[in-house]
Design a protein that fits this description.
The chain is about 25% helix and about 20% strand. It is an alpha/beta fold and about 240 residues long. The protein starts with 19 loop residues before the first helix and ends in a 10-residue tail after the last strand. The chain binds S-adenosylmethionine.
Length: about 240
């Protein structure tokens, strides 16, 4: 059995807690695999100037894959995670937030997260709800754990026309105890969902699929989709 199929989060020290969340969400999740799969995609998009300045990493974990992207003076990354430490640097904000609550103006945690983000971006709170600000959203290894429609749908509204969504998805791999009943179980559901949300798929790859297999529904997927509109050219990948 290939070990990437059933990786378990690695931590310096596993915390035995009443809440299994604490015990299982460790520091990193197959970081070498993710580097190998995502870095070439990031590099290609970067070389074509298609990553942009404002990047949101949803379900970032403690070692966000978006740190594989180069730092630039104008670049800022917002790392959203239900277990984030609310810390940050001038170019990285880590926000503790349940991504399923995105867009729920009546929820205190959403309003608090927005306030932090506005402070970080040095913008007015009003402009966040109304303006599409985000250049690139990265969703690595989280769609099993959340209501993927709610999360992607909520965040996608804030992507600029011509902006991008980069997905690494491992259907059914990970900590099944924590899977959401509304997680993404079949990659094909993602394709139709993106189409409905006005994203066109520019690139998809199944790097662990055997040569003779044609089915893509449950394969490890790396995907780039571009929000329609805007002036940016479609990526040639
Ligand atoms: C398997 S880890 C992936 C971490 C990182 N993206 C990576 O690729 O290494 C899943 C992450 O999703 C986060 N997560 C799970 N449910 C979430 C939710 N509802 N809102 C925000 N983050 C969530 C967990 O805390 C965890 O850090």
């Amino acid at each position: 059995m290939l070990n990437w199929l059933f990786y378990r989060p690695t931590t310096g020290q596993q915390v035995k807690a009443a809440n299994p969340w604490q015990e299982y969400w460790g520091e990193t999740y197959a970081p070498e695999l993710k580097r190998a799969l995502l870095k070439p995609v990031f590099d290609k998009l970067e070389s074509e100037d298609k990553i942009g300045s404002l990047i949101v990493d949803i379900g970032s974990g403690a070692s966000p894959v978006t740190r594989l992207l180069a730092s630039k003076p104008e670049r800022k990354r917002i790392c959203v995670d239900i277990a984030a430490d609310n810390g940050g640097t001038p170019d990285e904000l880590r926000v503790r937030f349940d991504a399923e609550k995105v867009g729920q103006a009546g929820v205190l945690s959403f309003r608090k997260a927005l306030l932090k983000i506005c402070g970080f971006l040095e913008i007015d709170l009003k402009s966040v709800g109304e303006v599409e600000l985000v250049d690139t959203i990265v969703v690595s290894d989280i769609l099993n754990y959340v209501d993927f429609r709610k999360v992607l749908g909520g965040f996608a509204e804030h992507v600029k026309p011509g902006g991008r969504l980069i997905v690494l998805n491992l259907p059914y791999r990970g900590n099944r105890l924590l899977f959401s009943g509304r997680g993404l179980k079949d990659n094909r559901e993602l394709y139709s969902f993106l189409e409905e949300r006005h994203f066109e798929i520019e690139y998809k790859n199944f790097p662990k699929r055997s040569r003779n297999v044609k089915d893509e529904s449950e394969e490890l997927l790396v995907l780039v989709a571009r929000k329609r509109g805007g002036s940016g050219a479609t990526a040639r990948m």
